[in-house]
Structure prediction request, 94 residues.
Amino acid sequence: MTIQKFQQQIEAIYFKKDAKRGLPLTFTWFVEEVGELAKEIRKEQHDIDRLREEFADVFAWLSTLASLLGISLEDAAEIYAEGCPKCHATPCEC
Ligand SMILES: [Zn+2]
Prediction:
């Protein structure tokens, strides 16, 4: 699945709901999901299935925020296509 397909899928599933909720409240949900990912990362024994789910949730909420602001995540990711955006090297030499 490409980043663009993912964003389109999340829009198809949640955009109406997220647009109705609005940007400020949707952002707090995103932060809450980041917190849940942090909890999974902090565990001494990593549960790969739980980590996978939390990464998916964070990515979904990030995607919906981008959609609410009219940002294409695929286009945003292009900023890193040619290496570090500052020094343009891969790996970064900054
Ligand atoms: Zn750099």
Notes: The CA atoms of residues 34 and 44 lie 18 Å apart. The mean pLDDT is 97.
